[in-house]
Design brief:
single chain; 97 residues; mainly alpha; Serine Threonine Protein Phosphatase 5, Tetratricopeptide repeat; 78% helix; globular
Length: 97
């Protein structure tokens, strides 16, 4: 359970957290469309989890959906503003130049 808390801010190992974890594995494997599907389902289940949006933004960037990726980051920031959130946004913007 501690792993889920660190990775996604989840309070417990929920179905949404499991979907997101599987999505991360798929993203690492380069299976971006499958990963996107997992993150979409995780967000549908827990739409207030900012980490799911951050993770999905990485998948969208890999799929060259820059507007979608930035939209997800903006949503994550709106849910939980922090210095790290803005740093993440800056890094993603630099990565698309």
């Amino acid at each position: 359970m501690e792993f889920f808390k660190k990775l996604f801010g989840a309070k417990q190992e929920t179905n949404a957290a499991k979907l997101a974890l599987d999505g991360e594995v798929l993203r690492i494997k380069g299976e971006f469309k499958k990963a996107l599907n997992n993150f979409n389902k995780a967000i549908d289940s827990e739409p207030d989890n900012d980490m799911f949006y951050y993770s999905r933004s990485s998948v969208k960037l890999a799929l060259k959906d820059i507007k979608g990726a930035l939209s997800d980051i903006e949503k994550a920031i709106s849910l939980k503003p922090s210095v790290n959130a803005y740093k993440n946004l800056k890094e993603k913007l630099q990565g698309i130049q």
